[in-house]
Batch of 3 targets.
Target 1
Amino acid sequence: MFDTIAAIATPRGIGAIGIVRLSGAQTRAVLSRVFFPRNGRSMAEQSGRVMVYGQVRDRESRLLDDALCVLFPAPHSYTGEDCAEIHCHGSPIVLDEVLGALFDAGARQAQAGEFTKRAFLNGRMDLLQAEAVADLIDAETAEGAQLAAMQLSGSLSRAVDAVYDDLMSLVSRFYAVVDYPDEDIADADRALLSDTLHRSHRELKTLLASFARGRVVKHGVPTVLLGKPNVGKSSLLNALVGYERAIVTDVAGTTRDTVEEKVRLGRVVLRLTDTAGIRSTDDAVESQGVARSRAAAQAAELALLVLDGSAPLTAEDEEAIAAATATQRIVLVNKSDLPMQLDLDALRRRFGSVYPVSAVTGAGLDALRHAVEALYPAGAAQGQLLTNARQYDAVRRAADAVACAGAALEDGLTPDAVLTDAENALSALGELNGKSVRDDLVDTIFARFCVGK
């Protein structure tokens, strides 16, 4: 981690501005060979955090671009090292040439996520904050971006650190009593120990319960379109995504497999799966499609149950209704542009709210959007939500260990039994925030970052 790295930090493609980043001890020296300020002073002599106008030249002194450059001196930089950015014109060719000139001057290509990895290793952020950086870049909704920004600012880290510090205080007192028996250190009050363990367990369980909400905010709601064949599910999918994503014909059973697409309704993202029509069939291929449809229905959190408003309910409708076992369900009566054959009042008595829609005209889709937003209201402002399986697993192991420590204390077991479980909890929380984490896990986490971050 002693070399100087460089990478293009802006997306590939033509744009007004492109940015090349550097980080490392030789940042100023590398820049001095490539960027030549118009004020006559080398970059090694420039003040930090001030935009400097100048020229970028390669090792043969050929002009590559007129650009701006800014230094971020260590230790108060993103990575904790000397950093810099060159703001060029946004031609991919220009950016590649500038990056090549930096390589010729002594920098090397940054690996995926290496800037943020250095920030973590240099103590500029913990592992939860580092993961929030990637989440902020990948955010697909305003709520997802807000959640990631709050976590980057340390909201989740503070909640985890509070539990970590309580458990560390408990463990350190145990060790003090054992290691310094002549110091007359009073044994910890059992009631106080019990209170600490119960409080820690309660807070960890609260974090575990937040995972479902955090996953929805980050990834979207797993949603399935269910209904009998030819009810208009694929037409609804196309209407929601805004283009012909699925094949639509008048022939029942056109959809033989699940079709997945992300759809944004207001501030909510749905991971929407269109399915084969639910019905009993002797067709081998269609039977596999129906089986996949039922599996998708079981995995979904939200079911959009589609009924045909232009025809009475059938046994196939009832099969689809029975398959709609998701936690949340919205009943849509499609083909509202045709004469209505269903009794909407009877459906409302059976299902509660019912939403007439038309995949052809788009009627009712705004009401569907409001219904989805009502089921998944905004609520990420506190930022203390777990958002990935790694975080959930670490908190689960910590909660289980704390529960075991509390049970050992209540059963009157020796202090070392309580201590072992408390240390296991600390180890799991250390993996969570990066205070004690394996190098291979760190590499895996940062490998999913883009190169310039």
Target 2
Amino acid sequence: MPVSLLAFVLIFGLVVIVHELGHFAVAKLAGVRVAEFGLGYPPRLVRIARRGDTEYTLNAIPVGGFVRVLGDESPNDPRSLAQKGPWLRAAFLFAGPAMNVALAALLFAVSLMIGVLTPIEGPGVGIYGVAPGSPAAAAGLRPGDTILEIDGAPVSTIPDLHALVNARLDQEIALTVRRDDRVLEEPIRLVPRSVHPEDQGAMGIVIGEPIGRVAYPPWEAVWLGLQRTGWTLVSIIAGLVAMVRGSIPPDLTGPIGIARMTAEVARTGVAQLVDWTAFLSINLFIINLLPIPALDGGRLVFVALEIVRRGRRIDPGKEGLVHFVGIVLLLALFLVISYFDLVRIAQGTPLPGP
């Protein structure tokens, strides 16, 4: 299995399994029968263990997991979720997304303890972005690198870099680069373009102040991790609201695009990969709480209606039909997004990201 695909499977699997653990924990605490906790998605490969009424299984599709509880198919069973009150069912549904927020806060704290890339004072020009398919990408430059010299000439400021690169367009240049607080032994060689896309420069990089890695002690990292979680939540929600209002064009990606972006992030370092996992976990929190049938948010809408109706449930058959239609529409949306992901990858268009 290629390293990039393995990184996607492990990261997406972690985010989904932690989500399912939230549902699992509340069901167990509430006395709801959990028939199965599965790693991956069916078909089943093997039963790992059985504890009480719960089977723990390993399944063929190695992404994520699931929890199967006794529900509306056994409404008279005292251990069925259908027998529980609306507030407990709401807690069961909300627990999965809540675990994704907790995971994100933990991961942000871990990345802060490892060390985050931060603008620092000093000579050099920092790289904050690398365009796919550009000379910089082909040469192996990464976000977080700092260019110190070009062909032996010092690069102290951004104007220095522009002057040195523009004097050597369409010629090979050698960059002395600092990466992760150490200067690379071998220079990075590339050919800056005189002809390039309008949204890119000669090398295809986004530049700014020099970059260094700053690590925080655990007591600071935990608090800063909580802050980053809150800022990321607000930022993603603001972006979704802007898309709904038409202020910005829709910019969505599916599993194919996420796998591609995960591979790109994995090449930039462990801390960035941990941050990316936290970002995905927050996205899963938000998406699952959208009031869309078949998602946790859509099911919570029916629980809220039951509370408003003072305990009178919507007929389970009708609710099931709504969720079935929701699943069909979500699968159709998934196929459409996946098609556009493939088109963007084929054309070399950057995929949306944090």
Target 3
Amino acid sequence: METAFDGVKVLDLSRLLPGPFCSMLLADFGADVIKVEDPHGGDYIRWWPPLLGKNSGFHVVLNRNKRSLTLNLKKPEGKEIFLQLAAKADVVLEGFRPGVMDRLGLGYAALKAINPRLIYCAITGYGTNGPRAQRAGHDINYLALNGVLSHSGPKGPPTLPGVQIADLGGGALYAAFSIATALFARERLAAGQYVDLAMADGALTWNCLRWGQYVADDTIPGTGDGFLNLGFACYNLYQTRDNRYMSLGALEPQFWKLFCDTVGHPEWNQPSYFEPGPHQDELRQQVADLFREKNLDEWMRVFAPIDCCCEPVLTLDEVMHDEQVRQRNMVVNLIHESWGAYRQLGIAPKLSLTPGSITRHAPELGEHTAEILTGIGLDGKIQAQLKADGVI
């Protein structure tokens, strides 16, 4: 079946999470992603425990559908090979600090000179300009500096989300969108372009609702102060008798009324349920006392036939066995010749004409080096010398 990115060649020099998740999305929809790794260890995330086979479980998920090429870009021969590949590539993706690729002689200007149609995407922490451009950072720092943490969690100290919002939402997803946008624009303009993508910038835009609230009422958002931020009883998390949790999201009047009627408290259904104020603390405490009367499975049976946005907080193991998740093919059972059976994350977007697919396991370090170099005309003798010289 035809793939969405059939014929698109991507050279991915990124490591860890943001870049690899971006290139995984492209690879899932047919792009030929070559993961360019240093011969001495490769992507650091390969070795982070726990391991699945000889590789990290993180690597197994993030680097499926890709080929691995080991290449020392600090060696002249390594640079030459990379230039040969870049001359025929559609996309170069990297996640180094600004200026690293330029110092190697492999920055956008150098690559554009040999391939004007090339799309070059640089994912950085803070972008290529500004006072923080060369500053190190991680997801927690980007979220801290861009306001997301300041209003995350219940009243009290900021709460760190369980997933990496800046890395994935601010970086990887924006990068994949930007690359797809640039590929689309290239069809009209016949030219590639440079994508300067800062994870901090991307994370900032995730404040969109709180930003809109602030510019409207001039009140600085804080923890536990909003109807979507654990400030209202109708949209909150509640502990059950067995120390599990239920999520209640009955924002709309019809859902809140149905919830109140279902639990036998129609008196809670007052207009003030969706108004800020100290009464929210009292109402939240009453709802909390209610939920502590039953175990999670009991509440699940109560709300299974009731459509009022009240659902259990599932563990990842429970999610993997959830019928909705399975029917959406979001858990894929695979078998690797050396790892054995394992469960891979499915592909979220369901395209009717050009669906994504998982066709390769995550590669071993340098697994496809010979294949790729042979493809650009380097025979076995040359490759043996390159290996001896530490180039591959």
